[in-house]
């Protein structure tokens, strides 16, 4: 009888967990218009927190430091948005020219496959991809990004309140709990805050460096859309394993279709691969440590899930959110085994 009750209790708990996850999924889906700017605000706040600490250490009043940081960050993001939107429009205008080059390449590949015992119609297979649909998807993406830039005011309102209230949590914990409990929670929260800030600040810095270096490489080799591809590299660098591969393939393909059978695409591929290898295998582990290595399968599932839930913004935020979750689980003794399971 007792065994039946235990089994029933386990089933009830599993059903409650599934129901809770389902309700949370609906909640995240319905509130995406508010939660996406909020999570982006948290992301940016942690990324620029070291700059705020530096200014406060120079005896700059906190309110003035926050104002300066918000104005500069707002201006930079708005300028980047305008540049990327212009680059995106140029890319759309160049699509017919690149589609002709792709068609010529496919015909060349198809003619070389005629010697095979079975028939492979490469143009027919690739032709299933509607260029107009791809164009409309890309334009929709640019429109979403430009809409995001239009919501910068909401994002930076969140940032102001997050930065202004980040030092008040310790006082609230001290007033809310008994001294021993409050001391323990304060240490845990301080450790969490430092680790999350370190991860997001270093990852953002390394992603910026990677994006700028790729942009510089493409400018040197006179590859089209250097600014746009540099930004794509910056975004993809937040995704372990898969991101760096995609960020290397896309510029190489653009260089190949632009310059054809020359050495330029090979040099572009080698330069980007070496840059990514140095940053990913030497600089990143040295600054970040090996503790935040995430399982590639878990990263892929997270990308698919958040992409379905929040679109492109969800895919960008998915891995940082996963890394933050792993940091939280590592700092709670009872959930450390889950953090270990999330590792490679």
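Q: What amino acid sequence fits the structure above?
A:
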């Amino acid at each position: 009888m007792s065994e039946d009750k235990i089994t029933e209790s386990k089933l009830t708990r599993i059903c409650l967990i599934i129901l809770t996850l389902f309700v949370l999924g609906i909640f995240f889906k319905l509130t995406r218009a508010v939660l996406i700017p909020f999570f982006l605000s948290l992301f940016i706040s942690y990324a620029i927190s070291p700059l705020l600490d530096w200014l406060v250490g120079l005896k700059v009043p906190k309110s003035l430091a926050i104002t300066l940081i918000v104005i500069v960050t707002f201006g930079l993001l708005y300028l980047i948005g305008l540049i990327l939107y212009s680059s995106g429009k140029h890319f759309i205008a160049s699509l017919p020219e690149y589609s002709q080059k792709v068609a010529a390449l496919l015909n060349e590949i198809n003619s070389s496959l005629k010697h095979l015992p079975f028939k492979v119609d490469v143009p027919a297979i690739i032709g299933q991809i509607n260029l107009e649909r791809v164009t409309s998807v890309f334009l929709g993406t640019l429109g979403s990004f430009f809409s995001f830039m239009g919501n910068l005011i909401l994002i930076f309102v969140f940032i102001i309140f997050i930065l202004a209230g980040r030092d008040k949590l310790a006082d609230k914990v001290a007033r809310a709990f008994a001294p021993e409990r409050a001391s323990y929670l304060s240490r845990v929260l301080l450790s969490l805050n430092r680790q999350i800030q370190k991860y997001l600040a270093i990852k953002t810095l390394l992603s910026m460096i990677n994006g700028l270096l790729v942009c510089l490489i493409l400018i040197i080799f006179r590859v089209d859309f250097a600014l746009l591809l540099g930004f794509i590299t910056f975004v993809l660098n937040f995704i372990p394993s898969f991101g760096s591969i995609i960020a290397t393939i896309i510029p190489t393909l653009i260089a190949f279709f632009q310059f054809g059978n020359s050495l330029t695409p090979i040099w572009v591929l080698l330069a980007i691969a070496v840059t990514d290898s140095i940053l990913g295998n030497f600089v990143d582990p040295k600054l970040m440590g090996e503790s935040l290595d995430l399982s590639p399968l878990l990263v892929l599932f997270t990308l698919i899930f958040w992409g379905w839930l929040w679109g492109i913004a969800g895919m960008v935020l998915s891995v940082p959110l996963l890394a933050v979750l792993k940091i939280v689980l590592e700092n709670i003794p009872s959930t450390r085994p889950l953090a270990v399971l999330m590792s490679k």
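Q: And what stands out in the fold?
A: Residues 174 and 183 are 7 Å apart (CA to CA).
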